[in-house]
Design brief:
Length: 230
């Protein structure tokens, strides 16, 4: 029978046949209420739908999207501070010099980076953070020596079903010029070599299937004991 002791910790109690308590397990199951946030790094070639997966998971609650800084120009409909912080190259590099970046990388000939403060503040407060970053940035996060990162970190690589399908998706969304689409496809092949560096590899299928499997990963990872304060 599950019982609670005077400090609110729970334990299993075994009752002997004669009705007397004969064993009170010495191993108290003291699981702290508070927990750190989960840091979910998501990478994969442009056009695999990873940003949509991250945004959807955030909309469902319990996690926030890490809004990156970039020096690439905004696409139609993109909002500064919501999709990205759109910075000049000078501003971006000044932030790097001041040590404000958690990670940063040159991707498709532009700078992209994550601000440290937002990620760390949320993890400490127990809020899960989703980072949609490239493979170079993911390697930097894995190599980060801050003791907060290791117990919180998990990573997912979203793999396109094929390069043909990726080309169709990139051209179909109509947000980039044919030259940019070609550059992204070329970079995709190099990025795809890194899938083994990630704990999970999600091969993209239908939107529904991708969302379902992504959600399943988050559900399991949120139960990690390493997130519980010691
Ligand atoms: P896009 O220009 O299509 O929004 O993003 C291009 C690539 O940059 C994507 O693969 C995306 O994951 C990556 N990216 C976006 N933000 C960051 C970031 O903060 N850091 C790094 N390293 N990569 C990022």
């Amino acid at each position: 029978m599950r019982r609670t002791d005077e400090r609110g910790r729970w334990f299993w109690e075994t009752i002997c046949h004669d009705g007397q308590q004969c064993e009170k397990r010495s191993l108290f199951m003291s699981v702290p209420e508070s927990r750190l946030g989960l840091l979910i790094v998501v990478s994969g070639p442009s056009g695999t739908g990873k940003t949509t997966l991250c945004r959807k998971a955030c909309a469902e609650g319990g996690a926030v999207f890490s809004v990156s800084c970039t020096t690439r120009p905004p696409r139609a409909g993109e909002v500064d501070g919501k999709d990205y912080f759109f910075l000049t190259e000078e501003d971006f590099l000044a932030r790097v010099d001041r040590g404000e970046m958690f990670e940063y990388a040159r991707v498709h000939n532009r700078w992209y980076g994550t601000l440290k403060s937002y990620v760390f503040d949320n993890l400490r407060r127990g809020v899960d953070v989703l980072m949609d970053i490239d493979v170079q940035g993911a390697a930097q996060v894995r190599g980060c020596e801050d003791e907060l990162v290791d117990p919180c970190l998990t990573d997912i690589f979203v793999m396109p079903p094929s390069l043909e399908e990726l080309r169709a998706r990139l051209s179909g969304r109509g947000t980039d010029s044919p030259e940019v689409v070609e550059l992204r496809l070329k970079n995709a092949e190099a990025e795809m070599q890194h899938w083994r560096d990630y704990r999970y590899c999600l091969v993209s299928d239908t939107r529904e299937s991708d969302e379902q499997r992504f959600r399943a990963i988050l559900t399991a990872e949120r139960l990690r004991s390493s997130l519980r304060a010691r």
